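thoughts on these tokens:
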Amino acid sequence: MTPRLLVLACASLALIACNAPGNASGQPGAAQDDKPQAAEPAAAEPVASDSRPFASTEVASFDEPWAMAFLPDGRLLVTEKRGALKLVDVATGKVGDIKGVPEVDYGGQGGFGDIALHPGFADNHVVYVSYAEAGDGDTRGGVVARGTLALDDSGGTLEGLEVIWRQVPKVGGRGHYGHRLLFDDDGKLWISSGERQKFDPAQDMQSNLGKLVRLDDDGSVPADNPFADQGGVAAQVWSLGHRNPLGIDFDAQGRLWEVEMGPKGGDELNLVERGGNYGYPIVSNGDHYDGRDIPDHDTRPEFDAPKVSWSPVISPSSLLIYSGAMFPDWQGDAFIGGLSSQSLVRVEFDGDSAREAQRFDMGSRIRAVEQGPDGAIWLLEDGDGGRLLKLTPR
């Protein structure tokens, strides 16, 4: 089958998969993305809780937490998927409310998503948030907005919120938003945009679904983006052929790494290249949920292959490349939160190569991983009552 016919076949069968029996969310792939599962067999030997080289301390708990960001004063912002933003005093565990949060389209994998501070936050107090927004009819899509955060001792207010980016087009279903946010050292805003479980938009340059997007801080398109001369949404795109990218971070050498959920198998850690095409849905090291085969990456060398691929899956939720002093042996390593694997996965790099080095059994789905100002590693558990955990050396 030609690549074009394969993509069309994937698109036509998407409707069948979306209504498959036994899929409570009505979307293909929900079992990996949203439903608790037993931990999969590990590529690295799992490290049990009593053998982990770190202690885990509970600081607070939340209602479906999704993302976190540390403020310059050491306090922590935490988003909750139903549409709340919390301010946490990590020294005391006290949790306050931030008002002015936008209305979100909650359900499935959608709701309030990520939060990131503007590089000049100490002076301008500007923050960026991502969330699912309802559209016309039964459609929705991810958006990114920015506003000013006014804080007080117990909470604060998000003021002047303005949408600067939208997923195009809005589609049905509530899966694969992606919408992780990251700033680089040049002040550019990076957005991971999932293909919304629609398969072929990941290869369609008239859509920004299934892409990594690079913007200026006001939402405008940098002139040096790889597809800037195409105009429209294509100008936003840095790389394409992604499925559900849920973690992005830069290493010390300035290289961008991205982790995404594969279909039934084939979770990926990718080194992101300017203008790179990572092949989905034409190639993947996993298969469709209805059992149909997807050719592996090695059958189509013109597409960028993952540096690490997981089958069975880990269900990656987030990515941190560690640079702190508290765990000196781990400087430069990547940490990936695992959902169905209920794990924290450590990855070691060797130049452009990577390998899973260790897998820590956390006993719960890990939604987000972040580095604290003192070099501690912070985790958010997924779901109702999801705990905020601080990891420090034993």
